[in-house]
Amino acid sequence: MALEELEDVDEWHETALRVRYAEMDKMGVVYHANYLIWFEIGRTEFCRARGFSYRDMEESENAFLVVAESYCRYKAPAYYDDVLIVRTHITELRRRSLRFGYEIIRESDGVVIAEGETGHVVTDSAGRVRSFPAGFAELLLSSPNQSDGAGEPVPSDEAPL
């Protein structure tokens, strides 16, 4: 599916995370490799919100989303205890490949601290390229489930407006 065809279904999925002390480097900022881990968290939650996990595809269909390329542009530092929003969306979907786009935003000030992409190829367990299993491409393009396991909102002490 070409990028133009994705425009109608393109939705960002947002996942919040908090920077842990173990993710810092000696200079007091997040170590650069952690951004790729956060991209993985973003795409994993993107899939879960659409009703499946990587494990589902691997175990039931012998299909794996192999990372073939990755790119990250660092725009501002992140620090210990920052709450970050990982925004994830699909930028390209083809029969045998998929590309995700990402933005990582610091919640406190709205600054985009990083943006990037990962390109994936669908393979079997032997590493041979194959097509997406039936139904999974459609799930990727579907709207997120209303109940994605995030739980119910905590009631406010304030009276409703």
Describe the structure.
With 161 residues, the chain is of the alpha+beta class. Helix content is 21%, strand content 31%. Strands 1-3-4-5-2 form a five-stranded antiparallel β-sheet. It is elongated.
Across the major sheet, the strand order is: 1-3-4-5-2
Overall CATH class: Alpha Beta
Gyration radius, in Å: 17 Å
Residue share in β-strands: 25-35%
Shape from CA axes? elongated
Fraction of residues in helix: 10-25%
Q: Looking at the chains present, what oligomeric state does this protein adopt?
A: single chain
Low-confidence stretches: 1-5, 148-161
Average predicted local confidence, pLDDT: 87
Through-space gap between termini: 44 Å
CATH fold topology: Thiol Ester Dehydrase, Chain A
Largest sheet: 5 strands, antiparallel
**CATH architecture label:** Roll
Number of individual domains: 1
Tally of strands: 5
Order of helices and strands: HEHHEEEEH
* Alpha-beta classification: alpha+beta
Tally of DSSP helical segments? 4
The CATH fourth-level homologous superfamily: Hotdog Thioesterase
Short description:
The chain has 161 residues and is of the alpha+beta class. It is built from 4 helices and 5 strands.
Blueprint (SSEs and pairs):
Layout: H1 3-6, E1 13-18, H2 34-49, H3 54-61, E2 64-74, E3 83-93, E4 97-106, E5 112-123, H4 136-141
